[in-house]
Amino acid sequence: MGSYGIYVWSCFALTALVVIAADWRARLRHKRVYRDIEVRIKALEEKQ
Amino acid sequence: MWKWFHKLASPPHFYRLAALFSPWFAVPGILLIAYGVYAGLFLAPMDYQQGDAFRIIYVHVPSAYLSMMAYMIMAISGGIGLIWRMKLAHAVAAAAAPLGASFTFLALVTGSIWGRPMWGTWWEWGDPRLTSELILLFLYFGYMALRGAIDDTAKADKASAVLALVGVVNVVIVHFSVEWWSSLHQGQTLLKEGGPAMDPGMLYPLLAMILGFTFLFGSLLLRRVRTEVLFRERRTRWVREMIMSPEGH
Questions:
Q1: Among residues A23, A34, A20, which one has the least CA distance to residue B229?
Q2: Which residues of B touch A5 (CB under 8 A)?
Q3: Which of B10, B42, B165, B219 could make a disulfide contact with B26, Cβ separation 3.0–4.6 Å?
Q4: Cα separation of B143 and B97, whole Å?
Q5: How wide is the angle at C-alpha B93 spanned by C-alphas B88 and B98, nearest 5°?
Q6: Helix-helix angle B200-232:B57-84, to 10 degrees
Q7: Chain A residues touching B15 at Cβ < 8 A
Q8: B97 and B68 in contact (C-beta within 8 Å)?
Q9: Hey, how many other C-beta atoms are within 10 angstroms of the C-beta on B172?
Q10: What residue spans define the domains of chain B?
Q11: Which of B37, B105, B113 is the best substitution to test chain A (most A C-beta atoms within 10 A)?
Q12: Is B249's pLDDT higher than 70?
């Protein structure tokens, strides 16, 4: 890559980072929403 | 056809279908990207003018293309939601926005990194392609901020759909800016009249990357829509039954 290596590798590394972060955030948000609903339903059932 | 469309728009049906299809988008996406990265970095011949710096296109072009495609998905879904009052369409629009913003950010940053050795500058304010792409990022931010600012989901859906539809004008400007005005950015390469102006050794890895990114985007979008549906339907009976069932998820 010569003198362009830093530019090329940094672009590929940044892309990998953003895509992995998007995947991780999607998983995390689903888990969080699911858990919140689960907690709310269980609390309602206990009340009843 | 219409019956199938209505069934697909049913939140519980879509929720199950999205879980089923998401891996089927992710696997080919990862395989195509793996091939594209390897071929783009190590097999494609060096460009006679740009040297190895041209290899940045293998991440820049798919990101730029997805930045516009995600916006169109967001706007069309918003439009469908407004006209046919389909809740699922609004969920798709809401889920597409953060993904579109991520790919727009990538397109801007990778383009800027490429511009430094090629144009001798990180950024050129007078360039129509660069500026309109930056406006696209601001439109995504505006869309997400608007959604976040309105507590009532139905009102947030309507207001953000209108904003998304108005912003389509900017997507058209991004796409045609290199033809309408004199720009530092190079003109159309893939969609050029008479076919792509690229050597096949460079072109195939690029096509693999574009297709791979599209599949990966599809998988991410399906998963995000699934979460959005779950959140919006959190007080419904089917969500309660699903969560209380031994299988869960």
A1: A34
A2: 52
A3: B219
A4: 7
A5: 135
A6: 40
A7: none
A8: no
A9: 12
A10: 29-43+53-244
A11: B113
A12: no
Query: Are the C-beta atoms of residues A8 and A1 closer than 8 Å to each other?
Result: yes
Query: Looking at residues B177-198, what average pLDDT do you find?
Result: 76
Distance from CA of A9 to the nearest CA of B (A): 8
Report residue A32 as tokens.
């969080």
Residues B112-140, mean pLDDT to the nearest whole number: 93
In angstroms, what separates the C-alpha of B127 from chain A's closest C-alpha?
21
Q: What is the pTM of this model?
A: 0.92
Q: Enter the tokens of residue B108.
A: 């801007």
Task: Tell me: ipTM over 0.90.
Answer: yes
Q: Which of B56, B102, B113 sits opposite A18 (nearest CB)?
A: B102
- Strand-pairing partners, residue B47, are B51
CA distances from B125 to B48, B119, B133, B156, B220 (A): 28, 13, 11, 33, 32
